[in-house]
Structures are given as structure tokens and as C-alpha cells.
Design goal:
Blueprint lengths: L1 H18 L7 H6 L6 H6 L8 E13 L4 E7 L17 E6 L13 E16 L2 E15 L3 H4 L22
Parallel strand pairs: 3-5
Antiparallel strand pairs: 1-2, 1-4, 2-3, 4-5
């Protein structure tokens, strides 16, 4: 009987975690977002998907403040269950996220990971190196900036088990 309860509790928790996908965006935005619309479809034909709401994420490549608002150039990355860009060497391309307002580009800077929920506005052709690149453009409704990886992944303790027992290799420096 006890094993069945534990199994049920584990299954219930697992089901809740699976149904909360992209939890960094509000429930309303997740409800409105086109779940079956992939980034590759938006990338191929941004004009055909104008007005549709999508949730995308990736790594900021460039950011600048313009008269329209803050424009982020993002290298798309697949999202995990909670909506965080996965740390993989895989991308469907780049997209532009236009935030109607001011975001400090010293914070929203190159290398930072973001998840963006917004409306597909169409496309914009801009130079990328020596070529003209067609970017899908999103009008941002919600944005989530993820903590910097370098700080987040450092262990807060010098070794496992600290401070409850002594490191067997520890030696004073005198």
C-alpha cells in the first residue's frame, strides 16, 4: 500500500512538471502561443506567420536601443521543459526581438540567454558579415533573462560534503 502511494506521488509530480512546460512565461501567453509552430517554419516564412504568438529562446548576439525600442539579435536555441535555452551546438538561425521600451544593453548583452514570448511581425533584411540575412522579427510581449552561466554553475563549496566533514587532502600552507 505504501509503495503504491509513493509511486502515485512520484507520477503526479512528474506529470505536473511535464505539463508546466515553458513556465517562465505567463499562463496567458503560453495558452495563446502556437505550440505546433516551430522556429524553422517561422524562419522559412515569417510573413506567412504574421500575428501568431510564439515562444522562442536563445543566446543574445547583439543588442541596441533604437527609436522603436530595444532590438535584440538572438541566436535561436531549442528550449527545455521550463523554457530555458538548451546548451547545445544546434540552432535554426537568428531572429530579432523588438522590445517596446528600454532594456539596458549592458545587462541584455552578448552571450546572455533569453526566452522571448511575442508576436511574429514579419521579416527584416539586415547585413550579417558580408551577406544580407533575413531575420524573423518578434514584437516582445514577455521576456526572461536567464542568470549568467559562469556564475550559476560554480559550486558554492570547495568539495562535496563541505562543511560537515574535513577534506582528506587538505593540508595547511605553512
Amino acid at each position: 500500500m505504501m509503495k503504491q502511494r509513493n509511486l502515485f506521488a512520484i507520477l503526479l509530480i512528474g506529470a505536473l512538471l511535464l505539463t508546466t512546460g515553458c513556465a517562465v512565461m505567463s499562463k496567458d501567453l503560453r495558452r495563446e502561443a502556437e505550440k505546433d509552430l516551430s522556429f524553422s517554419e517561422v524562419f522559412k516564412e515569417p510573413e506567412a506567420h504574421k500575428g501568431k504568438i510564439v515562444i522562442l529562446g536563445g543566446v543574445i548576439v547583439d543588442s541596441k536601443n533604437t527609436k522603436e525600442g530595444t532590438l535584440l539579435e538572438v541566436l535561436q536555441k531549442p528550449l527545455d521543459m521550463v523554457g530555458e535555452p538548451r546548451d547545445v551546438d544546434q540552432s535554426g538561425g537568428r531572429f530579432l526581438a523588438l522590445y517596446d521600451g528600454f532594456l539596458d544593453v549592458a545587462i541584455y548583452t552578448k552571450g546572455r540567454e533569453v526566452t522571448v514570448g511575442g508576436v511574429v511581425q514579419g521579416k527584416r533584411v539586415m547585413p550579417l558579415g558580408e551577406i544580407q540575412y533575413t531575420y524573423p522579427v518578434l514584437s516582445v510581449r514577455e521576456i526572461h533573462l536567464w542568470p549568467e552561466m559562469s556564475k550559476e554553475r560554480l559550486s558554492p563549496y570547495p568539495y562535496w560534503g563541505y562543511p560537515w566533514w574535513r577534506d582528506p587532502f587538505w593540508r595547511p600552507w605553512y
